Structure to design on (173 residues):
């Protein structure tokens, strides 16, 4: 409930006209974890019949880089297509656009809140509804690690769904 109130206040009073409830997933390079989290969330929103946006960025993303083939393959098992994804760095307007900002690691949360204190109430660990643990970075690791990490991300997204669906419907009025 506290998050819903913060989202309503931050989103509607930010001076930016937006139509859709939006969730931003952030990781380091915007190649593995955050694009999968956003893609899986978009699919879940669609399954729930909720009109909302899910997008991703990276704290240290090199624009134009593409996910490794292991990421594309592991994501496909969840119906998420990462084959056309290109990395994008996190910019200030992205934080204004988002109602919730998911990060994968506590250090990412701390860094983001330090750099953008006004976003504090929007930023949460993706694993917050479960155990609040960091989500491993699979970059450079074998397919089995991507599969394990993506299963964990899907579990976390699924745990967020009741709250996100309620917030998105509240946002839509």
């Amino acid at each position: 409930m506290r998050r819903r109130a913060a989202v309503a206040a931050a989103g509607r009073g930010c001076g930016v006209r937006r139509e859709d409830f939006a969730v931003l997933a952030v990781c380091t390079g915007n190649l593995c974890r955050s694009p999968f989290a956003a893609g899986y969330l978009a699919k879940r929103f669609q399954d729930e019949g909720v009109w909302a946006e899910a997008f991703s960025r990276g704290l240290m993303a090199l624009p134009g880089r593409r996910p490794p083939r292991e990421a594309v393959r592991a994501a496909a098992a969840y119906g998420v297509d990462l084959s056309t994804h290109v990395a994008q760095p996190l910019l200030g307007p992205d934080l204004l656009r988002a109602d919730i900002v998911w990060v994968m690691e506590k250090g990412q949360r701390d860094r983001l809140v330090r750099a953008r204190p006004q976003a504090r109430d929007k930023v949460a660990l993706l694993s917050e509804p479960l155990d609040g643990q960091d989500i491993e970075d699979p970059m450079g690791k074998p397919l089995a690690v991507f599969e394990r990490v993506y299963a964990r991300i899907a579990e976390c997204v699924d745990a967020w769904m009741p709250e996100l669906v309620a917030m998105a419907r509240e946002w839509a009025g």
In short: The chain has one domain: 2-172. Residues 2-172 form a domain with the Rossmann fold fold (CATH 3.40.50.2300). The two ends are 17 Å apart (CA to CA). Confidence is low (pLDDT under 50) at residues 4-17.
